[in-house]
Specification:
heterodimer; A: two-stranded parallel ribbon; 8 helices; B: 210 residues; mainly alpha; 3-stranded antiparallel β-sheet; two-stranded antiparallel sheet; 7 helices; disordered N terminus; disordered C terminus
């Protein structure tokens, strides 16, 4: 009798849950129609950069004051393109920074990144929609710099751009945007506690000094745009706890260029290599180091013996990480997307760091 | 208020009717297992077993074995070597350079095992799909697997997956089908077999070595 009663209660609960799911489903269909603005997930992408709200009306150069410029301290290598970046948060909203390296951005957040080789070539755009999902677009500039229009969903290869390697520039497909951005703990890369720390790394390669108008962690917290940041990070600006200046810069470089895939999430490649720093966790940098130094690589790289090390301490030449960073064979190269030529300066920094590590018995020449 | 309650009651009733109907609709697919379905027994298998059976069915009819299980020469001609089921191009079979074909419509050559393919993309070797941790899919999360099939990139974010892997067709698998295939692939015997890396076409290898 008791058993029957329990069964019937369970069945009732299941039916109620099903009904609620149906109601929620109907609501999800109806709500975006109500919203009726750019945050509706079914709305088409803005057809031109002008329509994304980056510039003041009638201009393609004067950025609206509510779009805040910023510069991450560990920049992503993009074949030497000069970059500018802005973020927009809807009025009255803020970023929840309770998880210091997985910030929660409010719906309506927009970010832009401009890529220039002598002239602006492309501006990439990310937007968080009302339903919490993210969408990505690329806008291609005309040669006169008077307009930038939405690139095809599949991107464009080999666009003519003086100053780019071999004078050619590739616009990523929207799937490529997702490949990098959605492998990370949060799809916004380059706008987090470590990247915006006022304690900037003087050894960062391709590092640019923050511009006078740039927001950083301190100003964002002061303006109430970033909230719930652990107090320890407000009092002492985040920096990578490394044993030397070279190690700090190298780990920062790997964080900024590789950490969005080697992120420790379930979408990360199934190898032990972890390159994303977690500034809220004192043990995180040590975890990063242990994931690569002396670890056997699963990658059967040409030119390396079986069991080659990801990082062979004291020998960049024997380290798989350096081999793959140096290659631009699409089957070998790291990162796999977004560049035509390797980053000599970044590679040289990582090699210097590897060569500075104490060799172990196995890696000593 | 009364109307709302009546509406909700209608939904509850409708879903009570719909749920068993759906389950019944799914059951035959779940039993489409292998060549010897018992047919007479009630489907009492757990959801996990059901999913694995569905995955086995999909792997069988979608032709995964055609390239990922090496062919061997049997008494009636080439047949899949099921002792190496889905373990990809055999590590022990080092391939000589692929023949250079003259210009014209003949562009692709394949190894007798059907596990190595040469064409304008270079040379590709079929992957080890068994759950071996170091040489197969043992460490892969479902997300890794799904992202690979959906994007045509290794792990969804890495190197491009090369022909003849039919990504343009397979990317249309539903999430449920991919979950079933992944679940089945976890259950097959792990085989340690390190598949070689693809070989770039001649023009690219020259560019890469510069």
């Amino acid at each position: 009798m008791d058993v029957q009663a329990t069964h019937s209660t369970r069945a009732r609960r299941r039916r109620l849950a099903a009904a609620l799911r149906l109601v929620a489903g109907l609501a999800a269909l109806v709500l975006p129609a109500w919203a009726g603005d750019f945050t509706a997930s079914t709305a088409p992408l803005p057809p031109t950069l002008r329509d994304t709200g980056l510039y003041v009306d009638g201009s393609m150069s004067r950025v609206r004051p509510e779009n805040l410029p910023f510069s991450p301290q560990y920049a992503l290598w993009s074949d030497g393109a000069a970059k500018r970046r802005w973020i927009y948060l809807p009025p009255g909203t803020f970023i929840d920074a309770a998880r210091p390296e997985a910030w929660e951005f409010p719906p309506g957040t927009r970010l832009w990144k401009e890529f220039a080789h002598a002239r602006a070539v492309e501006t990439r755009y990310i937007e968080r929609l009302r339903d919490g999902s993210w969408r990505y677009a690329a806008y291609v500039w005309n040669e006169d710099g008077t307009d930038a229009v939405l690139a095809p969903e599949g991107g464009r290869t080999g666009l003519r751009a003086a100053g780019a390697p071999e004078g050619r520039y590739d616009i990523p497909a929207q799937a490529d945007c997702r490949a990098c951005h959605e492998g990370a703990r949060v799809p916004v890369l380059g706008f987090g506690a470590l990247q915006l720390s006022p304690d900037r790394d003087p050894g960062a390669v391709h590092g640019t000094a923050a511009g006078p108008a740039d927001v950083d962690l301190r100003s964002l917290v002061a303006r109430g745009l970033v909230r719930n940041l652990p107090a320890s990070l407000t009092e002492r600006p985040p920096r990578i706890a490394a044993s030397s200046a070279t190690a700090r810069a190298a780990l920062g470089y790997l964080h900024g260029n590789c950490g969005h895939c080697h992120s420790g999430t379930d979408s990360a490649p199934p190898v032990d290599l972890l390159l994303a720093q977690d500034i809220g966790d004192a043990a995180a940098t040590d975890r990063v180091l242990r994931s690569m130094i002396g670890r056997a690589s699963l990658y059967p790289a040409a030119g390396h013996a079986t069991g080659a090390r990801v990082v062979a301490p004291g020998s960049a030449r024997a380290s798989v990480i350096a081999t793959r960073m140096r290659s631009r064979d699409p089957q070998v190269q790291m990162p796999p997307l977004g560049t035509r030529i390797p980053d000599d300066e970044g590679l040289s920094l990582v090699e210097r760091w590897i060569n500075s590590l104490e060799p172990t018995k196995e890696t000593a020449p | 208020m009364k109307r709302t309650i009546a509406f909700l009651r209608a939904i509850v009733l409708a879903s009570a009717l719909a749920v068993p109907a759906l389950s019944a609709a799914q059951a035959p697919a779940a039993r489409a297992d292998d060549a010897a379905p018992s047919g007479a027994t009630q489907d009492t298998a757990s959801a996990a077993t059901t999913k694995v059976a569905r995955g086995k069915y999909l792997v069988t009819v979608a032709g995964c074995n055609d390239c990922h299980t090496p062919l061997k020469l049997g008494s009636n001609g080439p047949e899949p070597d099921m002792s190496r089921m889905l373990s990809g191009h055999p590590e022990s079979l080092a391939m000589p350079p692929a023949p250079r074909l003259p210009d014209g419509p003949w562009q692709v050559t394949a190894a007798a095992t059907s596990t190595a393919w040469s064409g304008p993309w270079g040379v590709s070797f079929t992957a080890n799909l068994t759950p071996d941790a170091e040489t197969g899919l043992g460490r892969w999360s479902f997300r890794n697997f799904k992202d690979t099939i959906r994007t045509g990139r290794h792990l969804g974010r890495g190197r491009p997956i090369l022909p003849p892997m039919p990504i343009p067709m397979y990317k249309h698998f539903t999430d449920e089908d991919l979950e079933a295939i992944y679940a089945f692939l976890r259950t097959i015997p792990p085989i340690r077999n390190q598949v070689p890396l693809p070989v770039a076409p001649p023009a690219l290898s020259t560019a890469a070595s510069q």
